[in-house]
Write a structure and sequence with these properties.
heterodimer, A: about 100 residues, alpha+beta, two-stranded antiparallel sheet, about 20% helix, B: about 475 residues, 7-stranded mixed sheet, 4-stranded parallel sheet
Chain lengths: ~100, ~475
C-alpha cells in the first residue's frame, strides 16, 4: 500500500536495542528492544509500508520512523462475552428479592 | 545536545526546574526534612482559588449518591446492628470522566498562566485524558506519554482506550513499550518542546484534589447532617488520598477515618515485559500503592506533593475478582455502569461497611468512566485470552497473574489490612538511606518532627523505629 504526502499515518521506531537498555531493569525487559509508536501527517512525498519516513505530529513535531499503517483505526472493543458475569447478575437479583421480602 | 540515556538523565534536575517552574531547593533543609507545608502554601493555590479555576472548566461539584441497595445487601451479610450507609461520589461526571480532571485543571491553568505553549504528562491512566481535556479547553498543545505495549506489540485494552480518548481531545499520544525508560523519553520531550510538565505530583496538582475532600464534607453534611465516619480512597501514587484528606481536614472533617485501598497484584513486577499484560488493573494496585506510600519522592518531580502516609488511618487490599464483582453489582443493583479501576474503593467499602455500626456512614470517594476496553467485559476477556484462569469461588485463593476469582457469593468479599507500622518503618528506612547514622542522637529534632509528620505517628515511635533500623544495619 502506498502512502502519499499529507496522509495520516502511524509509525514505529526502536529507541533502544535489546541488550543496551537502561541499567537495573528486569532481565526479560532488558532482552527486548525499547519501542515507540506515534501518529502524524506524512511529510515524505510517497512511501510504502515499512519505509523509513518523516511525519509531523498533531502538535507539530517532526519525527522519523518506520511506516506502519495509514489512517490508523481503533480496534479495542468489549471482547468475547464472559458468561460467568450472568451467574453474578442472577445471584444478586435473587439475594435482593430475599432481602425485600 | 547529547541525548544519550545517561547524559540526558544527568540533566534531569535542570529540565525539571524549567518545565515545572518550581525551584524545589528552597524547601530543602539539607538533611532529611523538607518544608512540605511551606511548599504547598507557596506554590499551590488556596481552596477558594482552585474552586474558581475548576469552575471555569466545569470540573468538580459532582453528585454523591446513596447506594441504598448495596447497603441493604451489605446489611444482610453482617450481624444485627451492623452495616454502615454506603455513599458514592460520582467523579465520572467530571469533563474527562474521572477525578483526575481536578488535578489537570490546576496544572493546565498554571501552565497557561506561566505562558507555556503546551503541556506534557507521563501517564497510561485517566490523567492523560484529563490533561488533554483541560488543554483543549484552555487552548494549549498536549502530549501524553504512555507505557502501552509489551514486546509482542500487545496493548492493554484499558490503555488503548485512554489513548483514543486523549486523541479525541486533540492530544498527541506517544506510545511506548514496557520499561522505566519512559522517564527518559518524557524528559527528552520536555527539553525538545519546552512544554510544561503537568506532573501528577506537583503542589498544584495535589491541591486540585482538595476540592474533592471539601465537597464530600459539605455534601455529606447536607445529606446526613454530619461529616462521614469513613472515606475510602483508591491508592496508587498517593495523590488522590493526599488531596482528599487535606480537603476533608480543611472542611473541618478531622475525625473522618481515611482508608486507603489498592487492588492486590502481589508477585507481578511492574517493569517486567512478561508481567505487563498479566495485570488486569493498570492502576490503583499495590505495585504502585506500596512503593509510593513508602518512597513518595520516587515520582517525576524532585519532591512529591503526594505523601499518603501523612494522612492514612488504615490501608487495605482487595483482590481483582472482588473489584470486578462489585463493578457488576454497582451496575445491576444501583444502575450505575462505571469503570472497574474506579471501583477498587467500592469493593473495600462494601466489606468495611459490614464491620461498622448501622448509624455510621462510609463514602466511596470516586468513580471513573467506562467503555470499550475499559470495562469488566473486555478486561476479563483480555485476561482469559492471556491465559489467566477466570472462575467463581473464594477470591481469597486468587493468584495475581495466574487467576482471577470472582466471589461465588458476596459474603466472600473481604479486605486484607496492611500493617501501617511496617509501612512507616519502611518509609523511615528509605529516608535514612545513604545517611551516616549510627545512633538516634545524630538526627536533629527537625528531622524527627518531619518523620513524625511523614508517618502520622509520634516522635517516640519514630525514635524507636530509627533505633531498630540502625541496630539491624550494624
Amino acid at each position: 500500500m502506498t502512502a502519499k504526502k499529507g496522509d495520516w499515518v502511524r509509525i514505529h521506531s526502536v529507541l533502544m536495542e535489546a541488550g543496551s537498555r537502561a541499567p537495573g531493569i528486569p532481565d526479560d525487559t532488558a532482552k527486548v528492544p525499547y519501542e515507540l509508536w506515534d501518529k502524524g501527517f506524512l511529510i515524505s512525498a510517497k512511501a510504502e509500508i515499512g519505509d523509513a519516513v518523516e511525519i509531523e505530529t498533531i502538535t507539530g513535531r517532526k519525527i522519523m520512523g518506520k511506516l506502519l499503517e495509514t489512517n490508523p483505526s481503533y480496534d479495542h472493543d468489549f471482547g468475547e462475552f464472559i458468561p460467568e458475569i450472568l451467574i453474578i447478575d442472577k445471584q444478586l437479583k435473587e439475594l435482593m428479592r430475599g432481602i425485600s421480602q | 545536545m547529547n541525548n544519550d540515556y545517561l547524559k540526558l538523565m544527568e540533566r534531569k534536575n535542570e529540565i525539571m526546574k524549567q518545565s515545572v517552574g518550581i525551584d524545589y531547593s528552597q524547601f530543602e533543609s539539607g538533611s532529611i526534612a523538607f518544608d512540605y507545608e511551606g511548599m504547598m502554601e507557596k506554590v499551590g493555590y488556596s481552596l477558594e482559588e482552585i474552586r474558581k479555576i475548576q469552575n471555569e472548566t466545569g470540573v468538580g461539584n459532582t453528585p454523591i449518591y446513596e447506594l441504598h441497595n448495596l447497603t441493604k445487601l451489605a446489611r444482610s451479610l453482617t450481624t444485627e446492628g451492623k452495616g454502615a450507609r454506603l455513599f458514592l461520589k460520582d467523579e465520572a461526571s467530571n469533563p474527562s470522566g474521572s477525578f483526575k480532571a481536578r488535578r489537570a485543571a490546576t496544572a493546565v491553568y498554571h501552565a497557561k498562566r506561566l505562558g507555556f505553549k503546551g503541556v506534557i504528562a507521563a501517564t497510561s491512566g485517566n490523567y492523560g485524558a484529563a490533561v488533554a481535556s483541560q488543554a483543549a479547553m484552555r487552548g494549549l498543545n498536549c502530549i501524553i506519554v504512555q507505557e502501552c505495549y509489551d514486546s509482542k506489540g500487545k496493548g492493554q485494552p484499558e490503555i488503548i482506550e485512554k489513548a483514543r480518548k486523549c486523541e479525541a481531545f486533540g492530544a498527541e499520544v506517544v506510545q511506548l513499550s514496557v520499561g522505566p525508560e519512559l522517564f527518559y523519553t518524557f524528559l527528552k520531550l520536555l527539553e525538545e518542546t519546552g512544554y510544561f510538565n503537568a506532573s501528577l505530583y506537583t503542589p498544584f496538582g495535589i491541591a486540585g484534589v482538595e476540592t474533592l475532600g471539601f465537597e464530600i464534607s459539605s455534601q455529606m453534611k447536607d445529606l446526613t447532617g454530619k461529616n462521614p465516619d469513613a472515606v475510602v480512597v483508591t491508592n496508587a501514587g498517593g495523590g488522590n488520598l493526599t488531596g482528599t484528606a487535606r480537603g476533608l481536614i480543611k472542611a473541618g472533617a478531622e475525625c473522618t477515618e481515611i482508608i486507603a485501598s489498592s487492588v492486590n497484584l502481589k508477585g507481578l513486577h511492574m517493569a517486567s515485559d512478561k508481567d505487563f499484560n498479566k495485570k488486569s488493573f493498570t492502576t490503583g494496585h499495590t505495585g504502585f500503592g506500596i512503593p509510593f506510600t513508602t518512597i513518595p519522592d520516587r515520582s517525576d518531580v524532585p519532591r512529591s506533593a503526594a505523601r499518603p502516609l501523612r494522612y492514612m488511618d488504615r490501608y487495605v487490599t482487595v483482590n481483582q475478582g472482588e473489584v470486578f464483582y462489585m463493578t457488576e453489582a454497582l451496575a445491576q443493583l444501583e444502575g450505575l455502569e462505571r469503570g472497574p479501576a474506579g471501583n477498587i474503593s467500592l469493593a473495600a467499602a462494601f466489606a468495611i461497611a459490614q464491620e461498622m455500626d448501622k448509624n455510621k456512614t462510609i463514602v466511596v470517594q470516586e468513580t471513573e468512566y467506562t467503555g470499550a476496553g475499559k470495562h469488566i467485559q473486555p478486561q476479563l476477556f483480555f485476561a482469559r485470552n492471556n491465559g489467566i484462569e477466570i472462575s467463581l469461588g473464594d477470591p481469597e485463593n486468587e493468584i495475581p497473574g495466574k487467576s482471577i476469582i470472582l466471589p461465588s457469593h458476596p459474603s466472600l468479599i473481604k479486605v486484607k489490612d496492611l500493617d501501617l507500622d511496617n509501612l512507616r518503618k519502611s518509609l523511615i528506612k528509605n529516608s535514612l538511606k545513604g545517611l551516616n547514622i549510627n545512633e538516634q542522637n545524630n538526627i536533629s529534632d527537625t528531622d524527627i518532627k518531619y518523620l513524625t509528620d511523614e508517618t502520622k505517628s509520634s516522635p517516640a515511635i519514630v525514635k524507636e523505629f530509627i533505633k531498630e533500623i540502625v541496630s539491624k544495619r550494624e
